Amino acid sequence: MEMLRITGLHKRFGDKEVLNGLELSVPEHSIFGFIGRNGAGKTTTMKTILGLLKADAGEILVNGEKAVYGQTGTNRHIGYLPDVPEFYPFMTAPEYLRFCGEITGMKETEISGRCKELLELVGLNEERHRIKGFSRGMKQRLGIAQALLNRPKLLICDEPTSALDPVGRKEILDLLLAVREQTTVLFSTHILSDVERICTDVALLNQGTAEIQGKLADIRSRYRSDQYTVETENRAGMLALQQAFPLMRHTGPNQLVFREEDSKVFDIMRFAADQQIPLLKIEREEATLESLFMEVVEK
Amino acid sequence: MKSLLAFIRKEWTEHFRSGRVLIFGILFLFFSILGPATAMLTPRLYEMLAESYAGSGIVFTGVTVTAMDSWVQFFKNMPIALIVFILLESSVFTREYRSGTLLLSLTKGLERWKIVAAKTVVPVILWTLCYWLCFGVTYGYTGYFWDNAVVQNLPFSAGCWWLFGLWAIMLMVFFSTLSASNTGVLAGTGGIVLLCVLLGVFPQVSKYLPTMLMDGNSLIYGAAQPETYIMPLAVAAVTAAVCFMLSIPVFNRKQM
User: How many domains does chain B divide into?
Assistant: First the structure.
């Protein structure tokens, strides 16, 4: 079942078309990595899902219900963690969670139990100081706790690890992995190693559309075969190779890149031997999300 | 209702912990004592002046101070108290726009009108408490030293000023939903008050303007009758209600 479905979403800020007919489908209980470079429209998409921004066109369904701008009832299914979560600095962490529980309309007994449970989960149960003294990592952990408070069916996290040190990042990724059983996680990021570590599904946002999306494993096998780099000793050799194998791409001085499906590595080696082209290296690189990402954004 | 109360409680806690309640308490207590104190000091000031001008031929005759002098001072001080109140409260919305703290409450499904309501109720309660505390202390001191009975229409004129404060708060709330910056809120609120003051020059218009409610001194001297204040009272009440009702749809459409 789909937890989130976006169809034909358009959003323009002045002259800039940020979302250009975005289509997205997030399956239930997935950890969905929403990848794109800065300014690709990730935050705009998330804010539109939450009814904080008005879409110019398109439809958003959360758990089968239509999300609308402003007062949207679909937010009861959603827990949201913004990129830099801002809390009331004069409150303590338990006070803030209690406040969140009360404005969500949770029962008193449920609030107490859930606050205790979540503060333990995010490791803030011993913290007695007001939020104004919290580090960025602590705020991010409190952010996850508040987002999970009313047991949302969809947890939306906007670049939850971007501003954190390696320890903080690991803690947040571990938390997202831990909550997968309870909820569906949609998280945006441009840190590809985070995606490779925890995501089951990904979508790659570029120029306002999801250029690639699906199961991470499928995408790896479907879109990428291994990539090779060939470096010749001189320019003449490089040009001769490129002439014989036009699908090879020139990427550096005397350096060519090709995919196994485009040009067979043994044909190239045979050609180099026949023509006596001196080679400095032939290197096989494993397909990574980064190379796929670069390929899409540089297209 | 529970979520509205939770947001009101949050606003109240914020006012307490940020020290604003303390500042208002000190400010309004200061103004409540200032009226009677100024009235008490006036004869002494005249005596001192008389002494210094004794040889110059200028003669100061004895000055009699009554409760009227204390109340005149009270109504003269109130505009300053209200300006400070509005200055400190003008960031009640904009601070949250700037910091982004409303985002999480809104995404939890908190209805937007409840935010507007809570952010209106708390300044209204604070203004009411501070204003009537100030009035009460002035009344007590003035009554102790002189006789409040010489002052005409005192409860009515005090009520008019209180309503003028509420009207200004409603303007502030409305401009807070419209503008993203403190400057915008203060310019909007101050601009409307200034416009009313300027229009007050024309007698045919001035009798309808809420700014007339500030003229408590004419009432306590008996120079004006309460009936003439009915129209500005009605205009202030209606425009305050309209401001509040408009604030909700404006805030509903605000992009965060």
Answer: 1
